[in-house]
Each structure stands twice: as structure tokens, then as C-alpha cells.
Write a structure and sequence with these properties.
This protein is an alpha+beta fold. It has 2 domains: 4-30 and 275-373, no CATH class; 34-269, outer membrane lipoprotein receptor (LolB), chain A, CATH 2.50.20. The chain is built from 6 helices and 21 strands. The relative contact order is 0.16.
Length: 391
């Protein structure tokens, strides 16, 4: 049994390990992935001119997907097919109607999920307004309609010029902070690869382990916006979602009644909207026992409930160690996250502080380890019992 003094010493050492990772800790870079574009050391953009050029490139690519700046009515129809560990997988459809002003109507269908949402100036109504949108549907919306962050100037930026299949791309890596001596692609970086000649996004990767590849063969152009005909999403090196833009065209004869909520929708109350994807760190330690100087991240892709922050669905993006990926899913499923009023799509960097036989010793892991959340102040979000999610 540890004495109070030994427990204090253990906690102090743990704090030092966390505060000085460059000296005491070790983290392997993300595993190799055939879809990772940046495999050699990128350069950090510190000069104002270099950062401005990168920001302009990102903003131009983002504006291409901002369809609500179109002042003509349109109809966008999308089909997709999914395969993975989410709760709902299979063939689905998504449609958006826009009146060219401020009214929109959005529908989705995936298995038994059928959602209608009607929006006007920040107000959202719909069928079954509290019903969650499936993780796969939110992912499709993210890669098609909001793949680029809105405020790139607030990020640390690194850049690599990459040639793939005869095409040169500018790959930009964004993070809020970088660890010392980061890998070519760090665990904390999102990645966008853009064709500088056209300004079109070529690949998107919100976190290591997930990659969307944009195919503009037969691209759909409409009022200065060019959408890819197909998007292929890969997770952990395997195909997960295939998206196809079926049509994107003028719709001058839209019935105004399509944008008016039914009396039943009004009676049910307003609904939520879907937030853009974001990153989130979550460090966990073994509950009792010595720790090694080694951290092993696992990225968990999840959706969170708009009202209470509970985990709606989740999948691990690194699965080579099934026990560790299962532990990451269990930690995320049992954690109370802060609600935002939006259904959130999050990529949680679960950083396992690996146990050891003795303090500072070699890392060991077995499936019976009980993990607790720890942050810089020695406290973390409350952990509660939750459903087992994903595979």
C-alpha cells in the first residue's frame, strides 16, 4: 500500500511528466497510412508573407464549399454508401434545397433514420426535432459542405509541397500547438491538401486515421462553385464511405411551402443544427500503479448530443491494438462532455499514459487496466457509465 508521502511523490512525478514531455515522455507518431500525404518533414510557416499566402489558399478553398452565398435557388442531391463500425451503415441519400435568400430544407435517409430540417435566419424546425443525425450523415456533410476551418489564422501552420499521381499539391497542417520534435504529421494536426493551380481541395484529414479524397472528374460547377463528383473517405487505411454528388443545379420553381414548418413541427419546438468538426484532447492514466514515460494516442471519431453532451456514436480510427482501441471507446463513451446546443462531430485524441511495472519503466498494457481521465490540473471531465460503442 502506498503511504500518503509516496502517493504525493507519484502524483508529483506524473505532473512533471505531463508538463515536460520533451524531457521525460515519448509518443510514437501516427501509424503509416497509404493516404497520408505528408511523409517528410514539412516547414513551419513563420514569415508573415508565407502565412498570408497559406491563409488565402485555405480561405479560397473554403469559400468554394460555402453554397449559401449563392443568390439563386438550387437543389443539391447526394447519395452515399458506408461501411464501418458506426451504429448505422449502408446506402443513404441527402438533399438540400435553398431559395437563394435565407431559407433551406435539408433531408437525409439512412436505414430507418429519416430526418427533415427546415431553416430560416437561425431558426431550425423539423420532424422529431430532438432525434440525432447519424454519425455517417454528419461526416458526409462535413467533407462536402464544411471541410475547411473558418479561422486558419489562429493556428500554427506547417506546409509541405507534395506530388501525387502527377499533380503537385500544397498540404497545410494546422494545430493550436505542436510538441517538440513532431513527426511529419503530428497527432494534433489537421491536414488539407489543395491544388494551388485551381484552388480546389484534394484531400481532407481532420485527424490521423481518416482521409477524404476528392475526385473532380465530371465535376459539378454552379455559380462559381465547383463540387467534386465523388468523395472517397478512408478510415484506418480501409474504405469507409463513398459519396457521389448526383446533381447540383438551378431550381427556380421551388414551392415556397417547402420552407415553411408544418404545424406539427412548430408544436414540437425548434431543433438543433450540426456543428463543424473539431478536435479535442483527453489524457487518461492508469487508476493505480506506476506509469512509464510513454504515451500512446488513439483518435476516436464521435458525435455528441446537442443538449447534454452525451456520446451518440463513436468509432476508433486506430485499431491495430484492439484492446487499446476498445479502451479508448469505453473511456469516451463514459465521459460527460460539455453540451453546445449543436450536435457536435469531434475527433478526440485519447492519450493513454501507459502503465509500467515500476515508475519510469518500460510500458506494459493488458486489457484489465482501469483508466481515469487526467488533465493539467489533476482533474478531468466526470466519467460515467455509458454504453459500449463501436467495434
Amino acid at each position: 500500500m502506498r503511504t500518503p508521502a509516496s502517493r504525493f511523490g507519484f502524483r508529483l512525478l506524473a505532473a512533471l511528466l505531463f508538463c515536460f514531455p520533451s524531457v521525460f515522455s515519448q509518443t510514437n507518431g501516427p501509424p503509416a497510412d497509404p493516404h497520408e500525404m505528408v511523409t517528410h518533414e514539412p516547414r513551419t510557416l513563420s514569415k508573415s508573407a508565407d502565412r498570408s499566402a497559406a491563409i488565402d489558399l485555405l480561405n479560397h478553398a473554403r469559400q468554394n464549399f460555402n453554397l449559401h452565398d449563392i443568390h439563386s435557388p438550387y437543389a443539391l442531391k447526394v447519395s452515399f454508401e458506408t461501411n464501418g463500425a458506426a451504429q448505422l451503415e449502408g446506402e443513404g441519400t441527402m438533399e438540400e434545397l435553398y431559395d437563394g435568400q435565407s431559407h433551406w430544407r435539408w433531408t437525409e435517409q439512412l436505414q430507418d433514420s429519416h430526418v427533415i430540417r427546415i431553416g430560416d435566419d437561425g431558426h431550425v424546425d423539423g420532424t422529431d426535432p430532438s432525434k440525432p443525425v447519424p454519425l455517417r450523415v454528419q461526416l458526409v456533410r462535413s467533407v462536402l459542405l464544411r471541410p475547411i476551418v473558418q479561422t486558419p489564422a489562429s493556428f500554427v501552420m506547417r506546409k509541405a509541397d507534395v506530388e501525387r499521381e502527377g499533380k503537385t499539391m500544397s498540404c497545410l497542417l494546422l494545430s493550436y500547438s505542436l510538441p517538440p520534435n513532431p513527426a511529419p504529421r503530428s497527432w494534433v494536426e489537421r491536414e488539407d491538401c489543395i491544388d494551388p493551380a485551381t484552388g480546389l481541395l484534394q484531400t481532407w484529414s481532420e485527424a490521423p486515421g481518416i482521409y477524404a479524397v476528392y475526385d473532380y472528374t465530371g465535376a459539378v460547377a454552379f455559380h462559381g462553385h465547383t463540387l467534386p463528383r465523388q468523395i472517397s473517405i478512408f478510415e484506418d487505411g480501409r474504405p469507409a464511405v463513398q459519396v457521389r454528388v448526383e446533381s447540383f443545379e438551378e431550381a427556380p420553381n421551388l414551392d415556397p411551402g417547402l420552407f415553411k414548418p408544418t404545424p406539427e413541427m412548430v408544436d414540437a419546438g425548434e431543433s438543433f443544427t450540426l456543428a463543424a468538426p473539431r478536435r479535442m484532447p483527453l489524457r487518461v492514466d492508469p487508476s493505480d500503479g506506476p506509469t512509464s514515460p510513454f504515451f500512446q494516442p488513439v483518435i476516436v471519431h464521435a458525435t455528441l448530443d446537442a443538449q447534454d453532451g452525451s456520446v451518440l456514436d463513436a468509432e476508433a480510427l486506430q485499431t491495430s491494438d484492439r484492446d487499446l482501441s476498445r479502451a479508448a471507446l469505453d473511456v469516451v463513451a463514459g465521459t460527460a462532455f460539455q453540451p453546445s446546443g449543436f450536435q457536435q462531430e469531434v475527433f478526440i485524441n485519447v492519450q493513454f499514459h501507459m502503465p509500467a511495472a515500476r515508475i519510469g519503466g518500460a510500458p506494459i498494457f493488458h486489457s484489465s487496466v482501469h483508466w481515469v481521465i487526467w488533465d493539467r490540473h489533476g482533474k478531468g471531465p466526470p466519467v460515467r457509465r455509458g454504453p459500449r460503442i463501436g467495434n
